[in-house]
Specification:
Order of helices and strands: EEHHHEHHHHHHHHHEHEEEHHHH
Distance between the termini: 53 Å
Shape: globular
Structural class: alpha/beta
Strand order of the largest sheet: 3-2-1-4-7
């Protein structure tokens, strides 16, 4: 329930793990990006930190979630913190390799489709492209892996040329899958539009270098979620380079009386909320509430990577209700060409490629095409099952 503005403020403390996402996207050691927040104050957090250090005889001056997950005693201490603060936390996470595939759609397909993007998002075309690319990557498709690596490198170096190079490798490779041929064809044929969009992004100092980094978008999503509980929020975040270069973007949320929500792909997103002051970037050493958030972030990151362990099962059970719905994780069903969604989007991709190669209008009659594909699907799938 929302609290009245003026007499209650939320102190939201967030901490990010693996903040420099662009440098370790394909790290098997750290496959997940996790960002956690807790609604509390430093007084209550300090008492909890002091108690858990004393109770579990921890040899550390402050709580470090990464260290806690390395011993049974530390895991017991983490469970204590998780149980105590679970109802006052919210966490967002991302499978980092899949997140790159999502960013590929955002920066390659979205600029071309943006004028009619609602049509495509409403039928999960973005999930079809991202998950199909990710499935190819998991299947050790060399073209898919090279495309994602070159895309990540291009975004980090602000250089589009490597993305173009993969097209020539794909077009000359008889073993390249039809899907990989299609998306690289789309990329190269629309390279001018894509490059214009990227040049604009890269020209913005506080955005260009962090175009694949997830801290800022994660914080924005968490704050939108918290705004359903608090009318106004005072926010402090663990200091990091990605946030320090972008945090001023949230100044536009200070003193807002309106809470604006949009719907995208069937999911509501809060895009405007109310902050009482600029977001502060602080040190975890002097802010026990940040340490609490760190325990959540580190424990969830550990649990996602080691899901078979009892500790991990406990973590995911305790934190289940506090996972933000905007977390980024793959869904192979979106890449299933035998599902209705996969059938429609697969045909839509083919249509876009044909029109691209012929220089035709990409958008003419698209809603009718989608409806026709929906009607054709039952007969098609029955035929395929015979």
């Amino acid at each position: 329930m929302s609290q009245h503005k003026g007499w209650l403020r939320c102190k939201l403390y967030s901490v990010t793990k693996q903040a420099l996402l662009a440098t370790i996207l394909f790290s098997a050691e750290q496959p997940y990006f996790v960002y956690s927040s807790v609604a509390t104050n430093n007084t209550d957090a300090s008492i909890a930190v002091r108690d858990v250090i004393a109770t579990y005889k921890l040899q550390m001056p402050e709580l470090k979630g990464g260290k806690l997950t390395k011993s049974n005693r530390g895991k017991d201490a983490a469970r204590f913190i998780l149980n105590k603060f679970a109802k006052d936390t919210s966490t967002i996470f991302a499978d980092k390799s899949y997140a790159v595939a999502c960013k590929f759609f955002e920066y390659v397909f979205e600029p071309v489709l943006s004028s009619h993007s609602t049509w495509f998002y409403n039928i999960n075309f973005h999930r079809f492209i991202s998950n199909s690319l990710y499935v190819h990557y998991l299947a050790k498709d060399q073209m898919a892996r090279q495309l994602l690596i070159d895309f990540e490198d291009s975004m980090r170096r602000k250089d589009f040329s490597k993305i173009e190079q993969i097209y020539h490798l794909t077009s000359s490779n008889n073993k390249a899958s039809p899907f990989m041929r299609d998306i690289t064809t789309f990329c190269v044929c629309h390279k001018d539009r894509i490059r214009d969009e990227l040049d604009t992004l890269w020209s913005i100092d506080h955005l260009g270098g962090w175009s694949l980094e997830l801290s800022m978008t994660s914080l924005h999503s968490l704050l939108g979620g918290w705004s359903g509980r608090f009318d106004s929020m005072e926010v402090a975040c663990d200091d990091s380079k990605p946030l320090s270069t972008q945090i001023n973007m949230l100044d536009s949320m200070i003193g807002r009386d309106d809470r604006i929500t949009i719907e995208m792909a069937g999911r509501k997103q809060v895009v405007v909320y109310n902050l009482t002051a600029p977001v502060r970037l602080v040190s975890s050493k002097d802010n026990p509430a940040i340490q609490i958030a760190d325990v959540f972030a580190s424990s969830i990151a550990y649990a996602l990577k080691h899901q078979e362990e009892d500790f991990s099962k406990d973590v995911l059970r305790i934190c289940e209700e506090s996972i933000d719905e905007n977390s980024v994780y793959p869904g192979a069903e979106h890449a299933d060409l035998f599902s209705e969604s996969g059938y429609i989007n697969g045909n839509l991709l083919q249509l876009l490629i044909r029109r691209t190669l012929r220089g035709e209008d990409l958008f003419e009659g698209i809603p009718a095409f989608i409806n026709q594909a929906k009607r054709a699907y039952p007969n098609w799938v029955c035929t395929m099952r015979r």
